[in-house]
Structures are given as structure tokens and as C-alpha cells.
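Protocol step 6 of 9: fold each sequence in the batch and record its C-alpha cells directly after the sequence line. For illustration, a two-sequence batch is reproduced in full.

Sequence one:
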Amino acid sequence: MGLRIDPSIFPKPGFDEVVARTEETRTIVLGSGLFWCADALYRMLSGIVSVRPGYAGGPKASATFEAVNGGHSDHVFVVELVYEPAKITLGQILQVFFSIAHDPTLRERNGSGPARAQRSVIYYTTGAQRAAALDYISRLKHAGVYDSLILTDVSPLASFFEAEPLHHDYVAKHPRQHHVRMVSLPKLSKLKKLFPQLLKPAHAG
């Protein structure tokens, strides 16, 4: 990743969503490369109610791992997050997204699979999410965090198709798989080191 600063001093967001009730939840969909790693990362965070790997950006007919991974679809590998903004803010989720989950300066090269399926995307479901994401990207650019331009697409969520059961919690089920060992596990270790305050108790320490 072309970071110019240490992730431990990664800029914080300038503003965040307004929370009316402590029990309310929000949904956002993020694409940062093959979804196995992102699925595992966000499952570790306190305030995340559910994580579902899946596909976005194309029709239902081509929303399969075989089609997407084979480069025969316009879909992006994504994860759908349902979160409680009173417990974890969108800004904190985006800090993890930009500092650990992937390299946002590589729009179509965040993994070993097909380029388009690996591109960096934020699919928002509310206007506040869009505003917060765009503001944070602007702050990262102003701070010169990366050595290249941030290329993350920020778009409204049109559709999301859940991935096959095999891909849910894949890292925990397949710790010896090559991609998991080489890509996912190092990122999980980095998350524990850099953002221990965001972790669920089961993953702390």
C-alpha cells in the first residue's frame, strides 16, 4: 500500500452521522478486493451487527462467485455491513477501510482476481453516509496520506446479492488457505495492533 504515514496516526474523520436513538442501525456496502478479508476484518469490530459478503454493480444472473471471479460479470466483491452508529461510527469503519482493508489508490487491482471485481467502492444508503465518505476522502487527500490519488468510487447502493454460504466467515473456516495466510491474516493482526479499542471483547488482547 502506498501510505506516506503510519496507519497508527491515520487521520480521523471530520464529522459523522447523527444518531437519534441508541438502538438504531444503518447499512453500508464496501468493496476492497476479494471479500474474504473484509468479511473477517469487520466481524471483529464492536458495533457491527452483521456482515454479509456478496456482489454489487451487476444483475442477479451474474451474481455468482464463478462469474465474478472469472471476470464474466460487472459485479464488485463487497461486504454488506449492518452497524450500530451509537457503538461504532461510520468514520471509524472508514478508518479501517482506508488504512487496513485495501489500497484505495488501486481502483482495479486490489487482489489477485479479475481487476473490475476488485475495485475500491463505497455504496451508501443514506445522504449522510455519502457526505461523510466524501468529506473523509477529501481530508485524506489534503493530508497527503497516499503517494497516489484515491480512486474510490462513492455511489448509491442499487442492489446487493449475498454470496454463497461457502464464503461467509471464510477466513475462520480456512486459515491455511494461501490467500488467507498471505493477505487476510496479516491484516487481521494489523487491525488488532492499530485499533484495539474498536474490537469486540472476543478479539481483544
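Sequence two, same batch, same settings:
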Amino acid sequence: MTNNTKKLSGICGILGVVMLVISFNINPGPPAGASYEQLLSFGHQYYLSILWGAWLQTIGPFLIIIFAFSLVILSQAAQTLAGWMVFFGAGILMTISLIEITFYIAVLFKDPPLGSLIGLNIIYAVQHLYFIIGAPALFIPLGIVLRKSDILPKWFSWLAILMGILFAVLGIVFLLHLILPLWVTAIAGIQAFWWLASSIVLMVQSGKRFKDNTMVSI
């Protein structure tokens, strides 16, 4: 990868995080256990916010996954088992995200009357999958890939592995809760800080290496 490509990958990571943060702020989500009447009121009040939030929550993870793939390629791990598991985990995580987003939009439909309630329950159900398999399947192998690479400081690799384990533990502990507590779903937001920090560090290090190589060639 050229330095420009590395910087572009870092920009993708940063933009993806920004889009996710905006989506979560403009779309607060319906109240837990909302009735049909409450869902209708919520959908009417936040109609545009839900749709724009769905768009942002679709494109944001896509950009982040581009950055994740770049880390694997930069680590020369694309042909390793850990590298392939990152690709597979990213596919799982993106699928979970798309299912959740689809039913955010489905909740806005007024007919049939039970459709919005079913959609809300599916959102609650698919949120479990993020903790059970989605996040662990991506972060643990990504941490293993980065542990054997020098493109980022080693603590990024250990943080990725620890996050993956934390999410997996939460998935087990709260498996019997049909609706995850708000603080549990909020914890998922810590991954945004990891993506943001790693994107910035990659861009900074790419700039330093380009400068060092230029000085050597001179």
C-alpha cells in the first residue's frame, strides 16, 4: 500500500466513526417495551431522524470495515487464518448491522398494525448477536493480526482482543434478558474509540514514514 492509500484507509475509519456517532445521536431508538401507540408516536416524531440514522448506520460500518481490511493487508496477514477470520467476522458484523437497520425502517410502517411491534422485537433480538458473535468474531482475530505486526502500537492489539472477550462475556451474561439493558448496549460504543484512535495513529505513522523515506532518499 502507498502512503496515500494508508491515509485514505485512515480517513475511511474516521468518517465511519463520525457517521456512527451522528446516527446514534439523531436516532435515540424507541422506548423499551413500547406499545403500538407509542411506536406510532415515536415514528411520527423521529421519522426523518430514523431514516437518516439508518443511512448513516449503514455507510459508517462499511467505511470502518474498509479500514479493518486495510489493517489486515498492511499486516501481510491476508492469507493467514487470523486474516481470513477478520474478513469473516466483518461480514457477520455487517450482516447484523444491516438486519437491525432494516427493522428500524420497518418499524415506521403503520400496516399491518403488528408489523412495527414485530420489527421492534427483532431489533432487540439481533442486538444480542452483536455481543454473542458479531464483535468478538471481528475484534479477537484482528487483535491477533495486529499483535504480529508493527503497523500500530502493540496495545491496540491487546485492546482489540480484550474488547472481543468483553463483548462475548456480556453476550453470555445477558443471554436470558430478551431486552438488553441500556448500559450494555451503550458499552458497544467503546469500539468507536478504538477505530478512531487506530485510524488517526495509522495516518500519523504513514506521514512519519513518508517523511523518513524522503529524507533517506535525499
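Proceed to step 7 once all outputs are recorded. Observation for sequence two: The chain has one domain: 3-217.
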